[in-house]
Amino acid sequence: MFTPRRKTMTIGALLGAALLAAPVAAHATATPAAAPAAASPAAAAATGLDDPAKKDIAMQIVSSAENSSLDWKAQYKYIEDIRDGRGYTAGIIGFCSGTGDMLDLVEYYTQVKPGNVLAKYLPALRKVNGGDSHAGLDPNFTKDWAKAATDAEFKKAQDHERDRVYFNPAVGQGKSDGVGTLGQFIYYDAIVMHGDGSDSTSFRNIRKRALTKAKPPAQGGNETTWLNAFLDARVWAMKQEEAHSDTSRVDTAQRVFLKKGNLNLNTPLDWKVYGDSFHIG
């Protein structure tokens, strides 16, 4: 069962996320870590949260908050309307029919597998984007989503869109700011919940708010001080909406790791979300 998600990922916001990713990629090619010609692309890329083992940990922690479970791979088939004004919420990252990212996902899936079971819903998904309507989706969309989730290509499509819109921009910005694996995860969890639009509670504006209080390591700041400032700004953003009022995914999870100085997000990890305890050994 997902906890309510308040993403504001409209089409314009998705373009914003893509724009965020572009300068980050350029920066990454200029960092000393990427400079040695002998370094393989895989070795150069997997230096933080994008290390496969760390990425899996990140997915488990996010799933603990979004699904009350560490089994994030069981969520490809998930779909329901959680009555947050964003229509259907579905899949491993909570793609929403009202925020544009579900539309992008189905469009991408249809590119790689034309004639799939969800392709026929594209006109309806375009019409309901931006609201909570189910027009043209009911009564069989949820059944067809679950059916599509048995297809390996659909799972790959969900992974692709998660990385393109959320994971890669967050990790890239984290590396640009000079923060380690924990900091990159903190960014990722923020962009998953808030998206990266132009509104005051979006990821980029949470970061801007934090910049009024501290500087990231890349600008000469202390990493722990910076991440605390970012989390303060994140909590402020969460509290702007009543459904966000429980900030335990920050207070009893991310701040626990930060207070312990676990900037590399090393296991074992113990945390709580919404009162539930979780452990990764």
Summarize the structure.
The chain has helices spanning 11-30, 41-45, 52-66, 101-112, 122-128, 141-148, 152-177, 181-194, 203-211, 223-238, 248-259, and strands at 79-81, 88-90, 95-96, 269-273, 276-280. With 281 residues, it is mainly α. α9 (203-211) packs across α10 and α10 packs antiparallel against α11.
Commentary on this structure:
The structure is a single chain. With 281 residues, the chain is mainly α. The protein has a single domain, classed as Up-down Bundle (Chitosanase, subunit A, domain 1), CATH 1.20.141. Helices cover 51% and strands 6% of the residues. The protein has 11 helices and 5 strands, in the order H-H-H-E-E-E-H-H-H-H-H-H-H-H-E-E. The chain has helices at residues 11-30, 41-45, 52-66, 101-112, 122-128, 141-148, 152-177, 181-194, 203-211, 223-238, 248-259; strands spanning 79-81, 88-90, 95-96, 269-273, 276-280. The strands form 2 sheets. It has a 3-stranded antiparallel sheet with strand order 1-2-3, with helices on one face. Strands 4-5 form a two-stranded antiparallel sheet. A hairpin with a 2-residue loop joins strand 4 and strand 5 (276-280). It is globular, with a radius of gyration of 18 Å. It starts with 10 loop residues before the first helix and ends with a strand.
